[in-house]
Design goal:
- The structure is a single chain.
- The protein has one domain: Rossmann fold (3-Layer(aba) Sandwich).
- By secondary structure, the chain is of the alpha/beta class.
- Strands 5-8-7-6-9 form a five-stranded mixed β-barrel, surrounded by four helices.
- Helix 5 crosses helix 9.
- The protein is globular, with a radius of gyration of 17 Å.
- It binds hypoxanthine.
- The site of hypoxanthine has 13 residues, from strand 5, strand 8 and strand 9.
């Protein structure tokens, strides 16, 4: 991304914390942020535009608990047909304007049998099952060519969030997120295989953004909303409606968890 493509309102605002709001979680920007400005993705040169219903497609920036934050209200998915480079452009932009900590949220199917729809899971690690990597291609010169992925999701901040959740009596799971391309949901055989690989939850996002963020040296926290039991774990068929319904149902708890996590960052 060229420096000339970066909106001056963002360089002037200097956001510190970035938030990617996943499926059904876009409300957070309106409910919790003292909004200073909005920039529709379509107004930015070379920026992709989200095609998923329920994904508004804009940056919202402002203050949250005294911190300067920038939210992606709507994110890009690989299954929409974007390249890995396109869908991680917002992360490069956030890093350029000063973001040092990134919160990535998503909706995910629960593979771990102790998970129930409506649970929240802190990502302890991920499995990139996308069959590609957002860093493939000419090295931009930002960050290292072969970034370490030993500790993608910041252990210290996770521990602080866990402690906060425990004092509030909020149950917070912690586990491994596996990313598939989608857009089809998984087969029961795939879910059994993913369980053997060590995955606790499965989704169609987050991993590309987290990889780029780590290359750029950002501190990353990932939070999944477990919206459904993964294929074959429950007897029912999977639908996008079920995913949205669960995300809607746990909105207030999610907002509380995310806002408090940002405050602790
Ligand atoms: N699989 C993949 N992605 C998802 C799921 C799922 O079960 N639920 C929400 N996003």
């Amino acid at each position: 991304m060229q420096d000339s493509q970066i909106p001056t309102e963002l360089t002037e605002f200097k956001p510190e914390v970035g938030l990617i709001l996943g499926s059904g979680l876009g409300f957070f920007a309106d409910d919790r942020i003292e909004v200073a400005g909005r920039i529709p993705y379509g107004e930015m040169d070379g920026f992709p535009v989200s095609t998923v219903p329920g994904h508004v497609g804009q940056f919202v920036y402002g203050h949250l608990d005294g911190k300067r934050v920038i939210c992606m209200q709507g994110r890009f998915h690989y299954y929409e047909g974007y390249t890995m480079q396109q869908l991680t452009m917002p992360i490069r932009l956030m890093a350029k304007v000063g973001v040092h900590t990134l919160f990535v949220t998503n909706a995910a199917g629960g593979i771990n049998r102790s998970y129930t729809p409506g649970d929240f899971m802190l990502l302890s690690d991920h499995i990139n099952f996308l069959g590609t990597n957002p860093l493939i291609g000419a090295h931009s010169g930002e960050g290292v060519r072969f970034p370490d992925m030993t500790a993608v999701y910041d252990a210290d901040l996770r521990s602080i969030i866990r402690t906060w959740a425990a004092t509030k009596g909020i149950e917070l799971k912690e586990g491994v997120y596996l990313a598939t391309t989608g857009p089809s949901f998984e087969t029961p055989a795939e879910i059994r295989a993913f369980a053997h690989l060590g995955a606790d939850a499965v989704g169609m996002s987050t991993v590309p953004e987290a990889i780029v963020a780590r290359q750029l040296g950002l501190r990353v926290i990932g939070i999944s909303c477990i919206t459904n039991a993964a294929a074959g774990i429950s007897q029912s068929l999977l639908t996008h409606e079920e995913v949205s319904e669960t995300a809607d149902r746990v909105r207030p708890q999610f907002a509380e968890l995310l806002a408090s996590s940002v405050a602790l960052a």
